[in-house]
Amino acid sequence: MKKIALSILFSASVVFAQNFTLSSTDLQGQLTSKQVFNGFGCTGENISPELSWKDAPKGTKSFAITVYDPDAPTGSGWWHWLAFDISKDKFTLPSGFGNSESKDAIQSITDYGKSGFGGACPPLGDKAHRYIFTVHALDVETLALDKNSSPALVGYYINAHSLAKASLISYYGR
What we know:
The chain is of the alpha+beta class. It is 16% helix and 31% strand. The longest helix has 17 residues, at 2-18.
């Protein structure tokens, strides 16, 4: 009987983690000029989108947000945003959150070489790129990193402490 009860509890926690969901009132299938970088030949508004999540798995102690373009012609993709040490009690980031410093998260440097949100800016004439917005549920309250940490280092720590993740993909080409 104990094995059955433990099996049901384990199954319930797996199902609960599978419902971890990310949504946004700002993101659709295609990015708009609001989420396009202003620089590198692009003339967007460079505003981070509103992001909300629900049903984080049991044991979540903090969250991290990443935005990654796997189609960037670099050989290693392009990191557009890394925000971490977000409280386990926070389930939404308002539009523009990534454009200013906040005590609610640490935003480390991106592949643009500065911290905060860096919008889409694929090469002119290239195919539309995928921009993967991901919320990560983490098993630690803090990654013990700072805003000068490299995207690779932040990614390593996020992956080492990830309980679950949920993503949205939007596209942009020019």
